[in-house]
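Reply to dn_fold:

You asked what the input looked like. This is it:
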Amino acid sequence: MPRAKWLAVIGKLTALCLLTEVAFGQPPILSERLLGPHWIWHRDTSGDTSLTPAVKDECALERSFQLDQRVKTVTMRLAADFCHVQVEINGRRVASVEPYSPTIDVDVGPAIQSGDNRVVIAAEAVGGPAAIALSLVIATVDGRHSEIVTDDKWRVSRSGNDSRNAVSLGPIDASLFGLGRRPATIDPFDNYEQWRQALGTPAKESNGAFWTAPGFEISLIRQALPNDGSWISMAFDPQGRITVAREDEGLLRMTLNVQRSAVEHVETINGDLQECRGLLYAYDALFVNANKSKGLYRLRDTDGDDQFDEVRLLREYPKGGGHGRNDLALGPDGLIYSIHGDAVDVPKDNIVDYTSPWRQARRGKTTREGCVIRTDFEGKKWELLAAGMRNPFGIAFNPSGDLFTYDADAEFDMGSPWYRPTRILRLTSGSDFGWRGVTGKWPPYFPDHPDNALPTLDIGKGSPTAIAFGTQTKFPAAYRNALFVLDWAY
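and this is what came back:
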């Protein structure tokens, strides 16, 4: 599906909604089982800071358990910090993890048997506070569920002797291990065209069609009228009014009532810029990534009449428009960050490039890959921060100043060994996430690409659009530290 239509799926029934929290004391607990694993190792590593261990630091951690029924499903979740790890169940290797890898989920049902079972984790530290956290969630054919987790009851040995109990470094944070919350991952067999369910459904009657976390509700602020068009991006101006970009062309400004519960007035503040996917108010101006107008623009009111009389092109971005010029964000460094999909040429002229000089794009080859560019408010200095993405639409900073996006998959690769799911990426300086025009992409496990940055989280199939952190919301603390993402397909 064209990403440009991520909010156009219900056409002229497009609506503006507000998500509000109405019961502040209720976290979104979806499961009563909050056991959770502990970080464990053969010694206390909490004080370790060196990235190079003084001596070889390795161990084997093991746990035995019994099952009196045949298993239906068994899912293993593993997190390994500062160590190489191999996991065997009943002598069968089920996982191998390199240092600094993301948390992994593995179906280990084929390795589990009725009767006695034995899990062995072989680990070698690479420095730093080495530790392992593991859980096995077991469902048996009689409908029962049980969980095996790492704790100080696991046995640990070094060099095949001196077996003793493992050292617990404390329980893993529940939110980091995905406990008690609805998972973000999407099942491969889930219906990819759920958006069709919205067709023909009046927005005022659709509230019951949404799943919402406990304590939250959805309020309709405005439903688009026939002349309002389809909406693709939104931003608040310094006066608290909403600026909405139409999918075809132009910008609408919506003034809210005193209670901020409905839109009182709608006006057009620009009718020329086409498909404005990125909107950012900063430095007494509105910065706009206009996809079909193929550039980054700055709009200003120079005569004080509350209208944008100056429209200046800061930089033109050549090439196609499908996976194009997307969201904008203001960085903690005061620079403006612009994120692009793989239909836009990666800039080579008048730009400081922080990526590897050995990249194809740096050696004269034209590549199809999304990238992040930043500039000052006058558009005088340009920098290429990161590249190697497919179609990252949204971009946002967390409270610590780290930059993130939600990158797209290739729908036509679903089911193939080289399919790369939609993913959350942390956009560090110089990073390359390996996307190269469909057939040229790198798998995350490529050993000969040391600059191949790994994803923060693989989600599955979908159609990523906008993202935002809850920093400025009045939600409970857990949500203010959370990353929210929009998926056009779901």
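The radius of gyration is 25 Å.
Hope that clears it up.
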